[in-house]
């Protein structure tokens, strides 16, 4: 009857609908859709206001690698709050946790790094990287070398400059972005953009040639840096084609263009090694990370800079008196303590070994979906992956976007007790790294049910 169709709203739902301006949400639809009010976390699960328990197949936003209730992270946060709930790091101030965290990150880095700068989010880390790139080139007397190349479908955040790096239309449209001096080159998605019959290696060669042409066209003396996620996340979990980064980096070196690795998703074990740069042979000059740095428990991000960059920055700030950049919460002691503990847990619980033990199963189960109707491509590495649905598997013809197939699949998964993320007609999986074999079996059983419903 009609009464059953009326959504039941709690007082909390009403407050949310009434007052909360949601990020990344169809604002006009929020009243109809209503909030998914998550009240608790437990291991790989989150629990809503009605007590429904979901497997968080996305680690929320690619963050919570240690799940949602790790006792050591909780304790580290409590202890830090009791000892020193806040202090800053401007003007030579520091705190024990942030000093140790910086030192540890330098040990873990995939390339020699001199120093680590701290911020609160991936966007701020990438904004900081841009400012460092500009500051560095002024410092070394190359003020014209300022352009930054990013990739279509890359995701680097939403602050004015980071959103400009991002190569997704929704982040630019009606925001008057991108800003000047930021440009985009091709997305390395072989399934979508390779020519018929083109091998991964040939596709990579073509993209590296195109990058070189672009640098020549812009003028090598004007191109400062190239930024890339080792595996593109929000753009659809795009794993680079074979030899891609090797060829791209050869071009960058030829024209003295800095390589920036955005490890905000790939960092800390997601691809099977500590950083995606390890997995794909990237030697970054600047590396940004966040998310799994604290398992998402507290906001923190980091920017690592190579010695040649740091040395020029230090000399320049010595000359002008200060490096005029920093956030009130740069190096926050509570965030630092939780992040430091997160890195210790990765080591103590041998998370990398666990990922390498379980990822063949994870990737194998994903690839099994290729046998299903309408599954065009399955892709992934380590503990991140995606399934792309297509109307015609032979021609790779996408579905009519109005059908919102990815979104519907994510809805069916949610009804089956699994949270996944739709990106167009692809859905992503990025489960907590602590997931057990039995939990993984249950996660795929729920995804099976969602896919059954679609077909
Ligand atoms: N870079 C990458 C690769 C990301 O996936 C994200 C967020 O998803 C960001 C940067 C931006 O991070 P934040 O949302 O913390 O600003």
From TrEMBL:
One of its GO terms (molecular function) is transaminase activity. Gene3D superfamilies: Aspartate Aminotransferase, domain 1, Type I PLP-dependent aspartate aminotransferase-like (Major domain). Keywords: Aminotransferase, Pyridoxal phosphate, Transferase. The lineage of its organism: Bacteria, Pseudomonadati, Pseudomonadota, Betaproteobacteria, Burkholderiales. Its cofactor is pyridoxal 5'-phosphate. Belongs to the class-III pyridoxal-phosphate-dependent aminotransferase family. This is Aspartate aminotransferase family protein.
């Amino acid at each position: 009857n009609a009464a059953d169709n009326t959504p039941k709203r709690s007082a909390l739902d009403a407050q949310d609908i009434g007052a909360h301006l949601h990020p990344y949400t169809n604002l006009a639809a929020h009243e109809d859709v209503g909030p998914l009010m998550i009240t608790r976390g437990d291991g790989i699960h989150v629990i809503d206001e009605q007590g429904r328990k979901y497997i968080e197949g996305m680690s929320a936003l690619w963050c919570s690698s240690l799940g949602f209730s790790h006792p050591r992270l909780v304790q580290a946060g409590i202890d830090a709050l009791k000892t020193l709930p806040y202090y800053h790091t401007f003007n030579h101030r520091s705190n024990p946790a942030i000093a140790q965290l910086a030192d540890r990150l330098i040990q873990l880095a995939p390339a020699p790094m001199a120093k680590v700068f701290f911020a609160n989010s991936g966007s701020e880390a990438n904004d900081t990287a841009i400012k460092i790139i500009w500051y560095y080139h002024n410092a070394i007397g190359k003020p014209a070398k300022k352009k930054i190349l990013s990739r279509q479908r890359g995701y680097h955040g939403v602050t004015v400059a980071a959103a400009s790096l991002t190569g997704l239309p929704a982040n630019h449209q009606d925001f008057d972005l991108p800003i000047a001096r930021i440009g985009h080159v091709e997305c390395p998605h072989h399934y979508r953009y390779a020519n018929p019959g083109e091998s991964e290696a040939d596709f990579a060669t073509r993209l590296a040639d195109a990058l070189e042409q672009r640098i020549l066209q812009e003028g090598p003396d004007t191109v400062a840096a190239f930024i890339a996620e080792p595996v593109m996340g929000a753009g659809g979990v795009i794993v680079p084609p074979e030899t891609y980064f090797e060829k791209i980096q050869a071009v960058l070196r030829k024209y003295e263009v800095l390589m920036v690795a955005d490890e905000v998703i790939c960092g800390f074990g997601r691809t099977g090694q500590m950083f995606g740069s390890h997995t794909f042979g990237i030697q970054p000059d600047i590396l940004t990370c966040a998310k799994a740095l604290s398992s998402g428990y507290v906001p923190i991000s980091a920017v690592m800079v190579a010695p040649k960059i740091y040395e020029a920055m230090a000399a320049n700030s010595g000359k002008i008196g200060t490096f005029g950049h920093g956030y009130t919460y740069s190096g926050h002691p509570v965030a630092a303590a939780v992040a430091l503990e997160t890195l210790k847990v990765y080591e103590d619980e041998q998370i990398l070994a666990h990922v390498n033990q379980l990822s063949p199963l994870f990737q194998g189960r994903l690839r099994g979906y290729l046998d299903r109707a309408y599954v065009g491509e399955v892709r992934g590495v380590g503990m991140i992956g995606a399934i792309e649905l297509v109307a015609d598997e032979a021609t790779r013809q996408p579905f009519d976007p109005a059908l919102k197939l990815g979104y519907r699949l994510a809805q069916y998964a949610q009804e089956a007790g699994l949270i996944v993320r739709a990106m167009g007609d692809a859905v992503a999986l990025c489960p907590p790294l602590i997931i057990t074999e039995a939990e993984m079996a249950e996660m795929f059983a729920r995804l099976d049910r969602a896919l059954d419903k679609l077909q």
